[in-house]
Amino acid sequence: MPKVPLQSMTLNMLSDGFTGKVIEENLAQIVKDLIERGRDGKTRTLVISLDFTPHDQGKVQVDVKVGSKLPPWRPVKTIAQIDERAGGLLFNTDCADNPDQATIDDVLRDR
After folding, report:
1. Which of 16, 20, 108, 111 is nearest to 66 (CA)?
2. pLDDT tens digits, the chain, 111 residues: what are they?
3. Pairwise CA distance, residues 4 & 13, whole Å
4. How many alpha carbons fall within 13 Å on the CB side of residue 29?
5. Helix, strand, or coil (residue 92)
6. SS3 of 25, please?
7. Dihedrals phi, psi of 84, to nearest 5 degrees
8. Global pTM exceeds 0.85
């Protein structure tokens, strides 16, 4: 392959083309996250960092770092109840916001 100038259009060719693959993979992660939960109004960021270190005889080392920043996943909050006899906290697996919520099985069992 011939020598090419380092420009915005050739960044994906750095590191034997691996830079382009890593950029595409991070973009795919961002798109997947937007499809799964993109209505949350949160920002997703693609981060590309290039570090240039001069060497002897007019050569420069180019170190590329690529990453993405996604908002953390935040499941609904769970309300637990302190129960010393049970040794800690109890919560209802069928109702995250009410540990005392009765289920249909509870009602049928109490009949």
Report:
1. 20
2. 689 999 999 999 999 999 999 999 999 999 999 999 988 999 999 999 999 999 999 999 999 999 999 999 888 899 999 999 888 999 988 888 888 888 787 788 888
3. 9
4. 15
5. coil
6. helix
7. -65, -35
8. no
